[in-house]
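sorry for the late reply, my laptop died twice this morning and i had to redo everyting from scratch. anyway the thing you sent over, i finally got around to it. pasting the sequence first so we're on the same page, its 472 residues, then the predicted structure underneath. double check i copied it right bc i was rushing
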Amino acid sequence: MSYRPPRGLLDLVLQPLRSLPLSVLALGGLLLAPMSHAAEPDPDPQAEKGAAATITGLSLEGEGGLKVRIQWADNQELPSSLVLSSFNGKDEESAAVEVQPEPGKETEVALDGAIKEFWETGWSQRLVLQDKERKETLLTQPYNLNLDCADDKECQLTVAPGAGTSGDVLHVSEELDAALAEVAAKAGEGKEVDLLDEVVAINPALRGQAVAYSLALSKLQVLGPCTCVWQAVYGQSPSGSGYSVYINNAGGIVSGTNGPGAKHALTALGRNGISYGFSGISQVNLRLNCSRWIITYHIEWIVTWPGGPRFPILVPRLSIASCTSTCRVRFDHQGRISGSTFAAYTSPGAATAYEQGSYRVDGTYLLNTSASNGGFFNQLSGVSLFSNIGTIGRVDSYGYVYAYSPAFPYFASASVSNGHSIAIHGQSSCPNGPYGHAAVWTYGTSQGTPQTTSLRNSIRNFFLNWGIWTNP
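ok and here's the structure:
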């Protein structure tokens, strides 16, 4: 006998997230009126094919050059020609190149001159891969530039995947965010300290990040005795561009990719029995960081392009003091998780596919679901809250496959794929700014172009509730 369950992924019918009713709120993060949606049964056959293209690596080369590694799908029709473009922090196209996909292969694409005057145009930039003829976007990838400084004289430019944000939102790593909090706690409110010296004393490896943070902060205007700025902290595991797995032994074959973050795809083909599992986390923190800073002086540092020339840059030395502002901030969240499973075998073989996903805000679960052996899920939830300390959106995922097939002509196979998105909107009312809105988002999927488009649309529609245009 054989077993072949129904396959596919639901594609969510998108609706703008309605304004949520607000009742009496307390500072510190009270959750309000959580809401969720589930898709109607409408399997998407494209979900089984996985992502058409996946960025597997980013690196810098030469003066302003960006190299992008792309893994192309081998089980679906790809456009004959695509365009890979890079946009700077002001959303201006800085470089573009035509790309011919190679099904089943990993190729490297060079974007010459993609990075220009990043200390002026923005440390957070993005890549877009688009069908040249149909103008359909296959993927987008925000990336962050940073500095790695061995001493107080010279730094090297670095690049890593990041989260998308609106303008005037500073990107900070989890490590630097923790160090800045420790600096503020040690100094106490109102005491001025040298930002760079204090961060380096806590963790010398953060010297370059502290320099980049100083450069970004110095571009913002000090509006009063206590000025607050939007700050986004992006964390993911696996980090970077994730990793691939390929195992071929007597038990069978396992192949897949895990990450970055909560995204993964995994397949098992059975012989004597083989199993494998992936887990991942994607997390975004949006908050206000309030302080008072002055530029005490500038010093010339040397920045080196990897494998390229060196150039000088003026780095401000900041004296900074923490302060307390009477800000009132509303945060609105939207999160989405999706998963698809497939298992097929002929008896006496066996196959199992299991996918689980969860979404939470400030530790409170809004979504937590699973599917197995042909099942699928695609859910969205949102919540609003007031907080003077910031807020966190997080997605966790886990996928597992097992396949056993004793001998030909028996067979067994199992596969899982998933997707997620996290979006946070912030609106502040502070005595000395900021007065407007902030947006931060991240997403990822291994479920193909239709699901990629669906996730991007849900993020875009969410922020349009406040008139914020985004291009995730």
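The chain has three domains: 50-170, 172-220, 230-288+326-465.
thats about all i looked at so far, will dig more tmrw
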